Amino acid sequence: METQANDLSKIICTLNQKIEDLSHLIQMQYIEFSKELSKRDEKINDLEKEIQSIKQRKLIEEGIKEDNDYAPIIANNLHINKMIVKEKETKWKEIFEKFVLKEYVPTVLIPNKNGVLISSKKWNKEKKPVMIKNLGHVVFLVTNHQYFEISIQSTPVKLMSFGVVSSLTYKERVPIGQEKESIGFNSNGTLLLANGSKKKITRAWKSNDVIGCGYHAQENIVYFTLNGEKIVQVSTVFSDWYPAIQPSGFTQFTTNFGETPFVKSF
């Protein structure tokens, strides 16, 4: 009887040990499972954050695309009067150029294939820069600045003038700046304004000089340059301008709307 009791005690002790070992094993497995569960939760949180970030970027891109649908504006709606040249015994002629959007370059002046600087349809201070998405980045395309240059090939023997006019019916044989709503820079080195004022601003033009004219639409400022240096600027209340040249009879010159680098730095 005593032997049976001892055997039973040993069995119970063995069972208790196995139960203790099993409990320890379960506890260790629970700890490992908790660690794996924590890692899984961290991965889920990271994935949720990444998904949220992707959604936010997508919303931003869709918002930019919706708010700045620039393709039809540039491709279909915008145009500019490239240049008006008064020919002898003829009327002013107007050349319209359609814009061609080229790859973005880090400059405020972006010429199309014809050398026309990209701008809004009308040059006025209400026009704002257009925000576009290009190569994965948001960039601002400044559209309110126009500039062009002429290179003098021979010293003018007669008075030559160039600048901007607001009308296509500008009178013949009248220097730019003398008629209403026009601003001109004459080859004798004078600035001529429509209010009748005339001011000597530099020396007379000579062969190999490069004369420039620019317009800041938002600031409503017309300015002139000589060999790349700004020499004068004029504030104006008018907002629509056409580049214009009044050449003298035997003066040779070339124009540059961006086909080649400007002498003036931007």
From TrEMBL:
InterPro entries registered for this protein in UniProt: B30.2/SPRY (IPR001870), B30.2/SPRY_sf (IPR043136), ConA-like_dom_sf (IPR013320), Gid1/RanBPM/SPLA_SPRY (IPR044736), SPRY_dom (IPR003877), SPRYD7 (IPR035766)
Coiled coil regions in record: 30-57
Domain named B30.2/SPRY: residues: 78-262
Source organism, top-level taxon: Eukaryota
Entries under PROSITE patterns matching the protein: B302_SPRY (PS50188)
SMART domains reported for this sequence: SPRY
Keywords (A to Z) from UniProt: Coiled coil
Name of the protein: SPRY domain-containing protein 7
